[in-house]
Amino acid sequence: MNNSKSKSAFSDSGAQALVLIQNLNLQFAQKKVLNNLSWTIKRGENWLLGGTSGSGKTSLAKVIAGLSGTAEDVKIDFVKEGPLPAKVLFVESWYRFKNIEGLSNFYYQQRYTSLQANETITVDAELKHYGKENNLEAEGLEKLMEALNFSALKNSQLLELSSGEHKKLQLVKALWLKPQLLIIDQPYTGLDALSRRRLNSLLDDLSKRGGQFILICNDTELPESINCFAEIIDGQLKSSNAPEEISGASLRQSKSLPEFLRARPAYTSDEIVRMIDVNIIYGEKQVLKNINWKVKAGERWLLQGPNGSGKSTLLSLINGDHPQSYTNNFYLFGKKRGSGESIWDIKEHIGIISPEFHWYFDATSTVWQSIASGFYDSVGLYRQLPYSKTAKVNELIDFFELTGNKNDLLSTLPLGKQRLVLLARTIIKNPELLILDEPCQGLDQQQTVYFNQLVDELSVNGMTIIYVGHFASALPSCLEKRIVLNEGEVAAIETIQEDCLA
User: Which of 423, 447, 449, 355 is nearest to 53 (CA)?
Assistant: First the structure.
């Protein structure tokens, strides 16, 4: 996209502007997303673009970045002789990487298989390629990596990174480039509390150097240099005075749970998980160190720890995806791993959602098919359902207010609704163990509150829950115990008190 300066347009705007958008229209299929939208971003302004899921925020960002639309849609007046590159950089909500051959058709369990992990390049190689491509000096890169606690992953394969670590890689690259306009979609996704604070400091530093940015999110812990707030309503931009004034999704009226979810899960053992001195090692790198942990039927656990502490690896052992579970003293549902059970035997007992699973899920399935696939732990529906299971799918679609979307492809839904579909998928079989690994990533505040209310309601039937979440204010109230990991070791196992989540 040629973001050339239009002198008359900028002079008519009444103030010196970096970005000028006038009467922008954007339509997907039969739905009008942006409707005669106008927006002037003046020099020195840093914006929060919030609001409801599906309102058009990401679509607008892609138009500004030249990734969709035409050259006439947006006028950008870069500083031609400035120290920062005359570029707009858009950082997507998650990173889609490729293997050495340029392909991206990975499957979920592949990240835990060391031989297949070697099919992707390392973090160091990715950064060297990016630096060469953009003529960047190596000076300052290590400081960025240290600030985001990312230096230790320099030699890791891209496939081995968790969602939070992939977000950090995106942010390191963006802040290394220092474009004149940086747009970040969901900047805090997967980041622990310390990384969020450090990111805010780095963005403030970018602003002091003359860069400007737009953050697409509904968070309230923001960089000090954020000075403008807006949302998209009915396809048009509406400015606000503070982030608290930005609306979220309409509060949903509480409904009774479907009858099949009111019954206690059919437990096969009183003991769900037992780990005895569990260790996970990749070459010279030890990811988990002497983990001892027991989860009993009906317990509700919070799993926490900074990015890279081993949370995702720990969960991969439980859900049957990690091959090293066979080499450890480890029990699931009362049976020692490696005693003849298949991965599908394990998954019959478990419902799971995670950002990584969402990455690899078949987005070409319809909403109805995606939810129904939870019965068979597949990433698509490849068989016809009997009447009893069909009825359960329909009940959940109604419960999640997805009736109008049931025949839509999952990929056509906004991220927030996609996540709700996968949440419905996790509970379709009333599992003995519900693993919720940062399940509210991509949901707005109201959707998060509603989902966590749902988790609280589900917990009443005695379902065992392991919940991963960084934000203390975005957790269900039913959680009663907490395990904290740090650098692959158990830092704490404790009963949750009110002050424990601060």
Answer: 447
Encoding tokens for residue 217?
């999110």
200 located within any domain = yes
d(CA 371, CA 39): 39
Q: Output the CA angle 343-346-349, nearest 5 degrees.
A: 150
For residues 240 and 363, state if they share a domain.
no
Q: Which amino acid is at 453?
A: Q
C-alpha–C-alpha distance, residues 489 and 288, integer Å: 6
Residue 83 lies in a domain: yes
The rounded distance, in Å, linking the Cα atoms of 393 and 424 is 9
CA-closest candidate to residue 327, choices 283, 294, 281, 287: 281
Where b means 16+ CB within 10 Å and e means fewer, 293-331 reads bebebbbbbbbbbbbbbbbbbbbbbbbbbbebbeebebb
Query: Which three-class secondary structure state does DSSP give residue 54?
Result: coil
Beta strands in 186-325, from DSSP E residues, in sequence order: 212-216, 228-233, 236-240, 271-282, 285-296, 300-304
Q: How far apart are CA 248 and CA 491, in angstroms?
A: 36
* For residue 117, pLDDT beyond 60: no
Please give the tally of structural domains in the chain: 2
488 belongs to a structural domain? no
Task: Give, as one character, the DSSP assignment of residue 349.
Answer: T
Global pTM? 0.78
DSSP characters for 369-409? HHHHGGGTT-SS--SPPPHHHHHHHHHHHHHTT-GGGTTSB
Determine contact, residues 255/457, Cβ cutoff 8 Å.
no
What pLDDT band is residue 97 in, cutting at 50, 70 and 90?
Answer: low
Q: Is residue 387 part of a domain?
A: yes
Does residue 415 surpass a pLDDT of 80?
no
Q: Are residues 76 and 202 in the same domain?
A: yes
Q: What's the pLDDT at 115?
A: 42
Cα angle value 199/353/172 (rounded, 5°): 20
What CATH number is given to the structural domain containing 172? Answer: 3.40.50.300
Domain assignment of residue 399, given as a range: 359-430
- The CA-to-CA distance between both ends of the chain, in Å, stands at 46
Give DSSP secondary structure letters for 424-467: HHHHTT--SEEEEESTTTT--HHHHHHHHHHHHHHHTTT-EEEE
Q: What angle do CA 407, 365, 429 make, to 5 degrees?
A: 90
Torsion of CA 52, 53, 58, 61, to 10 degrees: 0
What residue type is assigned to position 291 of the chain? I
**Do the beta carbons of residue 432 and residue 333 sit within 8 Å?**
yes
